[in-house]
Amino acid sequence: MPKYYEDKEEDTRACAGIREDFKACLLQHDCVVKEGKLPSECLKEGHCKALQTSFFECKRSMLDTRSRFRGRKGY
């Protein structure tokens, strides 16, 4: 289990797992750590793009009216 799950309250919000992975990716990226840039600046440069897309898709599935009948995807 990744270290950011230890000694932490469980987040019951939707897409919580992807949110944590996305946050960890940004905060541990060389762009933030070595270059001292803000995470928002690193996002504009295209870092952690796959997790950003996954998080977006998860949040979008919450607003999708079809998912009201089918249920949310297994994120």
Describe the overall structure:
- This protein is an all-alpha fold and 75 residues long.
- 3% of the residues are buried.
- Helix 1 packs antiparallel against helix 4 (49-63).
- The protein contains 5 helices and no strands.
- The longest helix has 15 residues, at 49-63.
- The protein has helices at 16-28, 30-33, 39-44, 49-63, 66-70.
- It has a domain at 16-63.
- The model has no long low-confidence stretch (mean pLDDT 81).
Task: Label the overall shape.
Answer: flat
Proportion of residues in helical segments: 55-70%
**pLDDT < 50 stretches:** none
Strand content: under 5%
Residue-averaged pLDDT: 81
The arrangement of helices and strands along the chain is HHHHH
Structural class: mainly alpha
Note the total helix count.
Answer: 5
As a whole number of angstroms, the C-alpha radius of gyration is 14 Å
Q: Please summarize the sheet with the most strands.
A: none
Strand tally: 0
